[in-house]
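agent> Task received from the user: take the single chain below, predict its 3D structure, and emit C-alpha cells. No templates, no multimer pairing.
agent> Plan: (1) validate residues, (2) run structure prediction, (3) serialize to C-alpha cells, (4) report one or two observations.
agent> Step 1 OK, no nonstandard residues flagged.
tool_call: predict_structure(input=
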Amino acid sequence: MEVHVTEVPWSSHSEKLQDIRRRVFIVEQNVPKEIEWDGEDEGSRHFLAVNELGLAVGCARLLASGQIGRMAVLAEFRGTGIGFKLLNLAVETAKLSGFEKVFLHAQTHARAFYSRAGFLVEGYEFEEAGIPHINMEMILPLPFDGTIGPVEFEVREALPIDDTPPYELHHFDGEQACIESLKTTVDLPRRSLRIYSPTLDHLLFDNTDVVNAISAFVRNSRHTEVRVLISDPHPMVTRAHRLVELARRMDDKISIRCLPKEVSPADENMLVWDASGFWIAPDYREYIAYANYYDPVTARRHTDRFDHQWQRSVECAELRVLRL
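)
tool_result: status=success, residues=324
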C-alpha cells in the first residue's frame, strides 16, 4: 500500500484532519471533545497521510512549543509504517525550522514505538484525558544555514547498495526474508556496527553467513568495531552461539554488554552502522523488519539511542565465564 505523507494547512484540510482525530480519539479512545479540540490547531503545523485511493488515513501536528501530538492512524491501517512516516516528517520539519528539541506525551502502550524512533523518556508517568502517558523528547541537530565558514567533511565510504536511492525504506516479512536482508546488511558497515537484540536471536545472529560477514568486517581495518547490547544472556548460556564465540576470540574488536535489570529493554532487534543506515525488526518475537541502507538522519537518532543505553550497560558475567 502506497501512502503519501505531507504537511497541509489547517485552513484547507481541517475537515479531513478532524475526521481522523474524531474517529481515533473521541470515538475509539473516549477522549472528551473539549480536550481534543483545544484551540491549538490554527497555530500548529499539520501532517496528513493519504493512501493511493486518496483516503486520508493518518495525521499528526507540531505545536510552536516543539510538542508533537495528535498522532493518529485509522485502525484498519495500523501496523503498516504510516505512524513512523508521520512522526519522521514532523521531526524533520521541526529540525529544519530550527527547533533545539521536540517532545511528546506518548500513551504508555506506544512508548516502544517512540523509543524506536529515537525519543527518550523524560519524567514520570501521568494521566491525560484519563489515559496513562509518559513525556518523551528528542534533542535535534541544528540545520546548516550557510553562514559559517569552510568545514572539513569526513568522507563516508558506506553508500546505498545497488544504486538504491537514499531514504528508501525496505520491508521484509518472514524468517528467510529477514535472514537474507541481514546478510546484505552486515556487508555494509565500514567503521562501526551496533547491534541490539534482547536475546541475540539465534536464527539471525547465530547464522554462519552473518557471523562470517561480521568477522570479515572487524578484520578489515584496525579502526573497525562492533558493539552488541543484549538484555537476557540466558539463551546464549544454555546454547552455543557463533557470534558470542567470535566476540570471545576478538574481544578487542567485538564487545557484548548487558542492560541492567532495572532498565526496561526495547522489544526490537536493531542494527545501525556508520551513522548512515539501519535495520530494525520492531518486535524481536516476530520476523518482520524494515531497513534503510542510507538515511543518516534516522540512523543518527538510532545511534544516539543505542549509545545512551550502552552507557548504562554492564559486562555480561554469564558470558565471561561461559565455555564454548
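agent> Step 4: summary for the user.
The first strand starts at residue 3 and ends at 8.
agent> Done.
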